[in-house]
Design goal:
heterodimer; A: about 700 residues; alpha+beta; Beta-Lactamase; Phosphatase 2c, domain 1; 19 strands; B: about 120 residues; alpha/beta; Transcription Regulator spoIIAA; 5-stranded mixed beta sheet; 4 helices
Chain lengths: ~700, ~120
């Protein structure tokens, strides 16, 4: 690339040196002009084409911003004027007129004229090159065509003078020249690049444009003046035409550019804002991808708020409306839109102290107003605002403020604040932009929340499956078998995991322990408590065969592991499988349903739930009760899922259970179990129950049963 | 189903919460919030009127257990009143009458706070 450019430079120099040599010789020897002059002109034209090609190799300049291009031309112009001026002052003696030809007076004039002309030629090529880029900045239908016509006219005008003597003029050339000027004017309306400049660039553009305009006027005046004009004409008529037209084009174009920039300047800020607005709204699409991380989302929203309205600082609050009851009880500040709690989730360039100054908690703040009116509010002067009531001497770095509610379809979810240091910092369209932005942010925040919720639901669902599996494994997998005793048991978990539990333990050869319980709470925590209860039951029941003693010890063992609001209700029966004596103790659980031959009843020894009172109170509360079972007697242990099974506002209740027992008197254990479950089911119209259903049914067969089994 | 409301009133410096509807695992947080906000304001004389309480589950009972220790440590109490037989039965099965003072009438409970003082 570098080599190519050096070659270009060399190629440019060669014809120019040849021309210079010819001129020097011509100064001395009178040579026949005709063909030599043509060759000279062609060499110069060739050199200028090479200059153009040389500029084409510098591709990078094409992507420069228009302002930089203007700057480039301005620098070139200054350099040209400086060097050219010096040369004119120093070297040119003048020309003699001889038969329509210009004859330089000395060699210095030859050199200076050559140098000046080449300089002007290169400058003109550069000007054309830059103007081409500017004109074609935003291409419309005729843009390219008009420019090509102008260039064609330019070249034809220049070319038409090849055959003319330096001081000769032709009508054709003149007509072409003025046509070219017309098209120069036409092309000078292609100024669309100005619109896309930022305000800063426009100001620079304006300054450059002004100096360029003035510079080109000066240049054009100089070009018309005797010595420079003569130098150019002496050097090359076509080049003179080319330089003239290029400089006229430059003059008109930059003049137009200056005026146009001037007119664009007042709207520059608005255009900038629109542009940044477009960028920001475009960036909003990024928000969608960030909804998985709330903090990241808040960061983006706050930093983009600063961008969209060029605010100094901003902060974002989320608003949580409290339940009505809680609100009344807690007696918090109550706005017409309900009671709420505020959490500042993100800040930019502002401290909590500053926020507190602007939003005093005691009074009715802007926040309340926005909550009620649900529309953006702009405060032009925070110190004098009637709504803020801050007072003129308030120490704050904030001058103006915009408060925008984030309203989603489910209601108001937050408030966005933006501040500026100056008073009257936010215009109407600022507020509109920030509101539009807030709408987008609301959607993103709402989505973020919904995604979080659905992930949470998914997590809970998995947790529930684990808990259900755990619960299922904690229940006995088979029923103990005794010749004197018929047993059946069932436990169905409700749609969520409950805390129902039943278990058996063979205490010794004579005695069987049966426990039914209910752990408060649901889900995994209930399942964990249940596993703890199972451990305690299996360990302690054999050590403390008395039901009361067992419950007291179990309460001591369990008390430490329960939190304040959790407790366990248990009912514990110990049956002597030989004698049929049943001893019952109850720790806050539902009473035992006893179905005898001639009556049904609840047996309810006094007691208290485990984990409720302290150990002494618990021990005092518990008392055992014993029943002597007769063959055919049935005991039913169950959980409150049975009695509290609901149909509308009605509960299955103890009376229906008792009636149910009365009906199924005389049946075997399984039949009684089925009957109770069926009754509950038909009572709830097959609706899924909201609690677990657990039943353990024990039927005392007595010695007759033993005989039966012996026979079989 | 899970209709649950709390009415709050203050009588002679005693804070009365009147519960209405179903108090179960889903609605228990409401009662929890209400009691917590009373405690936050250092109000420890609390009467819970259960006149319109139609159902209470173990989670609902757990709420009282969660707060009673704090309340009593601050020379206050949670007293329960006006229970329907059904609701009373739930409290009774679990042995709550051994732990809490349960009154037939709200005013009895309120008076009880002042008797103690004298």
């Amino acid at each position: 690339m570098k080599l190519r450019r050096i070659l270009y430079l060399a190629a440019i120099l060669v014809p120019l040196l040849i021309v210079f040599t010819i001129d020097v010789i011509r100064r001395n020897v009178d040579i026949e002009v005709g063909p030599l002059s043509l060759i000279r002109d062609l060499l110069i034209i060739g050199a200028m084409i090479l200059v153009y090609l040389f500029f084409e190799t510098t591709k990078a300049s094409r992507d420069q911003s228009p302002t930089r291009k203007l700057g480039l031309i301005l620098i070139a112009l200054i350099v040209l004027v400086a060097i050219g001026g010096t040369v004119v002052m120093a070297g040119i003696e003048g020309f003699d007129l001889k038969g329509g030809f210009l004859l330089p007076l000395d060699y210095g004039t030859v050199f200076s004229a050559t140098f000046l002309s080449v300089l002007l030629g290169i400058f003109s090529v550069l000007v054309m090159r830059v103007l081409r880029d500017l004109v074609l900045y935003r291409r419309r239908r005729w843009t390219r065509r008009n420019l090509l016509i102008f260039i064609a006219l330019l070249l034809i005008t220049a070319g038409s003078t090849i055959w003319l003597d330096p001081l000769e003029t032709s009508y054709l050339t003149r007509i072409l020249f003025w046509l070219a000027v017309v098209f120069a004017i036409v092309n000078s309306f292609r100024l669309s690049w100005i619109v896309y400049l930022t305000k800063r660039e426009k100001i620079f553009g304006l300054i450059y444009g002004f100096f360029l305009f003035v510079g080109f006027i000066t240049l054009n005046i100089i070009l018309r003046s005797g010595i420079v004009s003569k130098s150019l004409l002496y050097y090359s008529y076509p080049l003179e035409q080319f330089v003239s037209l290029a400089c006229i084009f430059g003059n008109i174009y930059f003049g137009m550019a200056f005026v146009s920039t001037l007119f664009h300047l007042p709207t520059a800020e608005a255009f900038d804002r629109k542009a940044s607005e477009v960028t920001s709204l475009h960036n909003l699409s990024r928000l969608v991808t960030q909804v998985f991380d709330f903090n990241e989302l808040v960061e983006t929203v706050t930093s983009m708020t600063l961008q969209v309205c060029e605010a100094k600082s901003c902060w974002l609050e989320t608003i949580h409306f409290l339940e009505e009851e809680t609100a009344k009880v807690s007696g918090n500040k109550y706005s017409a839109s309900g009671n709420y709690s505020v959490q500042i989730v993100g800040t930019k360039n502002i401290s909590q102290v500053e926020i507190d100054v602007l939003m005093p908690t005691a009074e009715r703040t802007l926040r309340d107003i926005v909550l009620e009116e649900r529309r953006p509010i702009a405060v032009d002067d925070v110190r004098r605002d009637q709504r803020l009531k801050l007072g003129k001497k308030t120490k704050t770095r904030t001058g103006s403020l915009v408060v925008v509610p984030l309203v989603s379809h489910s209601g108001l979810i937050g408030i966005l604040y933006a501040t500026k240091e100056t008073e009257f910092g936010f215009f109407k369209d600022d507020v509109e932009v920030i509101s539009a932005f807030a709408d987008q942010a609301t959607v993103a925040i709402e989505n973020s929340r919904l995604i979080k919720e659905s992930l949470e639901r998914e997590r809970l669902f998995r947790e529930m499956l684990v808990a259900q599996e755990m619960q299922r494994k904690l229940l006995p997998q088979s029923l103990p078998q005794f010749p004197t005793l018929e047993l059946d048991a069932t436990s169905t978990a409700a749609f969520e995991v409950g805390g129902d539990y039943y278990d058996f333990a063979q205490l010794d050869e004579q005695r069987l322990g049966i426990v039914v319980g209910d752990v408060s709470g649901k889900g995994v925590s209930a399942a964990f408590y249940m596993s703890e209860v199972k451990g305690v039951f299996q360990a302690l029941s054999r050590m403390y065969p008395s039901p009361k003693e067992f419950l007291v010890k179990a309460n001591e063992a369990l008390a430490s592991s329960f939190d304040k609001r959790s407790f366990v209700s248990l009912i514990y029966a110990v049956v002597n499988v030989t004698s049929g004596e049943l001893t019952l103790a109850r720790a806050g659980h539902c009473p035992m349903l006893f179905i005898a031959k001639d009556h049904v009843e609840y047996i309810r020894p006094p007691g208290m739930g485990m984990g409720l009172g302290d150990e002494a109170v618990f021990a005092n509360a518990i008392n055992e009760q014993s029943v002597q079972l007769n063959p055919g007697d049935v005991c039913v242990l169950y959980t409150d899922g049975i009695t509290e099974a609901r149909r509308g506002d009605d509960e299955f209740g103890y009376d229906r259970l008792l009636e149910c027992a009365r009906q199924s008197r005389g049946n075997d254990a399984s039949a009684i179990k089925e009957h109770i479950l069926e009754s509950v089911k038909s009572f709830t119209d097959d609706q899924p129950t909201h609690d677990d259903l657990t039943l353990v049914v024990l039927r005392w067969q007595g010695n007759s049963a033993t005989n039966k089994i012996d026979i079989s | 189903m899970s209709d649950f409301k709390i009415e709050y009133r203050e009588t002679e410096n005693v804070n009365v919460l009147e519960l209405k509807g179903y108090l179960d695992a889903h609605t228990a947080p409401k009662l929890e919030d209400a009691l917590q906000s009373l405690l936050d304001k250092e109000r420890y004389k609390i009467v819970v009127n259960c006149k319109h309480l139609s159902y209470i589950s173990s989670a609902g009972l757990g709420v009282f257990m969660a707060f009673i220790e704090d309340v009593r440590n601050n020379a206050g109490d949670i007293k329960l009143t006006n229970m329907s037989p059904k609701v009373y039965n739930v409290f009774d099965l679990l042995g709550f009458p051994l732990l809490y003072e349960i009154f037939k009438d709200e005013s009895e409970a309120i008076n009880k706070f002042f008797e103690k003082k004298r």
